[in-house]
């Protein structure tokens, strides 16, 4: 049975960060919403292009104004009755620049949605990676506690025999037994914590599976030496382009508007030869703005204020981002400098346990000293795990801001 369990565990594939990230990206309703928004903006572009074409419409209107004993509407104005049924074609001759401006505005909105979608993906990746690192650290703590518990259980059987042989006192055995029980309790607590951390990881990724699968060691690329152009400043560039597009729209509103139209159909008052009132007409419309109370100037000033505010936010963000990146890089260097000392301390602590374990069999070491050695090893291992976890989270945070 033990062999079958070992083989089954060996055949179970490990889950990596990419497995959770792919599921999160596939299931995220926010990312799906952004994809739908981009499709909607494509339709907006098609709608803008459709206004380039002639617009055809059909209309009909009828009127009957009776005059009874001299009472009623003036027939000079109403003709008493009228019928109109027309097919009209309108075409805006000078609309090319306006449509291009609309298309550019739609393109900028699409760029904003793409930016928001990518930012959401980066946020999702950062949060899931952080939780994956936490869950993996919990998994490592479970494995360490299992190993230490097995070691103490083996030593407990030996110590019990040596106590019965009067090599050790009963009080020393009880001291060791308390340490074993504390370690067993620590193992159960670490298992509960690991299940909670793993469930939280599934929750963030939108995975409903309740099974717990072993996690692979997280491999994160340290980009601390690759500080390049920041993704986050793109939103300020888009804002500037939007401001320019709005300014162009204001200018276009003050340009002449010229359109032509043609219609054909039936239009009659039935007063004279109504059967001959079929016909057609053509015409044009022209609109030239002259004075509107300096609204154009005020709109320019309003757009300038928005552009100025965006520049202030950009400068402040860039300074904060660079400061944050340098601070994280400094913390990373400090964290990495500890590993040599920590590994050396862990090596000495483990070596002391091995020596004390051999002396325990001959009764040449106090149980209290052996317990102290175990606690030192436990503390060193815990410190190494915490430092490793902090380093991975710092790398994840740095990579996020350095996108």
Strand order of the largest sheet: 1-2-3-4
The overall pLDDT average reads: 89
Query: Which of globular, elongated, flat, extended, rod-shaped describes the shape?
Result: elongated
Sheet bearing the most strands, described?
A: 4 strands, antiparallel
Report on the architecture of this protein.
This is TolC family protein. It comes from Pedobacter albus. By secondary structure, the chain is α+β, with helices and mostly antiparallel strands. The chain has a single domain, classed as Up-down Bundle (Outer membrane efflux proteins (OEP)). The chain contains 10 helices and 4 strands. A 4-stranded antiparallel beta sheet has the order 1-2-3-4, with no helix packed on it. α2 crosses α5 and α5 packs antiparallel against α10. The protein is elongated, with a radius of gyration of 40 Å.
